Amino acid sequence: MSLTVPRMAFVARSFRGTRCFSQVGFVGLGNMGGHMARNLLKKGHRLTVFDVNETAVSKLTEAGAKAASSPAEVAEEAEVIVSMLPSNQHVLDVYNGKQGLLSSAKEETFCIDSSTIDPFVSQTLAGEAEKSGIRFIDAPVSGGVNSAKDGTLTFMVGGSQDNYQLAKPLLEKMGARIIYCGDSGMGQAAKLCNNMLLGISMIGTAEAFNLGRRLGLDAKVLADIVNSSSGRCWSSELYNPVPGLLGDVPSSKNYEGGFGTTLMAKDLGLAQSAATKVEAAIPLGSMAHQIYRTIITQGFSDKDFSIVYQFLKGRK
After folding, report:
1. Model pLDDT, residue 316
2. Rounded CA gap, 54 and 68, in Å?
């Protein structure tokens, strides 16, 4: 089964002087979305926001945003809309629901979905948007909460080249790297492949350091060797799961903050689902998914995914 869909049929046109997207909508103001929306406000955009969490909305309105009562109302106000939502169903509801974005978005409205979801869902939404003359790209992010706050996210964009070029100036207000990945759904494909590898490598790093500990090897010595040898990887060098080796990482903060085990399990589940649809073998990805699901059942759902080190140690 292919992950490709036809390119947008309509010809890219000028947004009649709105290329700078002065009027922006934002749906989904969670840990990531709230910071992303705030950065747009700081860069001078007029912002209309919606979230089911009224407290999250209040924080943005206090900073200068306008509150909307539904996604449909956001679409009535905005030239471009960014969504940042937890799951496939949340995205489908926000776009296709009775008061969804597509129900009231004007022709040539630009929708940018930065949620991490199934690539096939993004492709479906791209097709539905095209039928209404609405532009759509999938643009999931990498970098976590700190990068969202600092405006240094990496965006992985799927959609037409024209839409990518039009969206890039706005995405640069929230991120440091904007990478074009291909047609609709390819941003999501890139995000899932990257996060699957991250989940696998973190488990491998945790296993290696746990083995070293059991053998009596000092973790700092092992880290120095690994980070200058063939075992070097991001999980060891920049996000080590052993407490005390690095200062500003979750493992040294009781595994608080960072990228939660629930989110890692979710992304690994999406990778598993996509792999099943295209008949791709991902034995390590599947095992990583099960390990993180088990970690959640052990009461670590609110901890950073590097907690796998403590799980392997047998900590309860």
Report:
1. 58
2. 11
pLDDT at 77: 87
d(CA 189, CA 204): 23
Separation in Å, CA 301 to CA 134, 194, 292, 297: 38, 21, 9, 8
- Phi and psi of 307, rounded to 5°? -60, -10
Q: Which of 90, 101, 82, 86 is nearest to 38 (CA)?
A: 82
Rounded CA gap, 156 and 190, in Å? 7
Q: Is 191 a catalytic residue?
A: yes
Please give the biggest Cα pair distance in the chain: 67
Catalytic residue chosen out of the listed positions 59, 131, 191, 303: 191
Listing DSSP states for 188-227 in one string gives: HHHHHHHHHHHHHHHHHHHHHHHHHHHTT--HHHHHHHHT
Q: b/e map of 196-213 (b: 16 or more CB within 10 Å)?
A: bbbbbbbbbbbebbbebb
Summarised one tens digit per residue, pLDDT across range 197-235 is: 999 999 999 999 999 999 999 999 999 999 999 999 999
3-state helix, strand, coil in the chain (%, to 5): 50, 15, 35
Residues 287 and 252: their CA atoms lie apart, in Å, by 26
Report pLDDT for 20: 65
Tokens of 135: 């532009």
> Span 182-207, mean pLDDT?
97
What local confidence, expressed as pLDDT, does residue 136 receive? 97
Percent of the chain with pLDDT over 70: 93
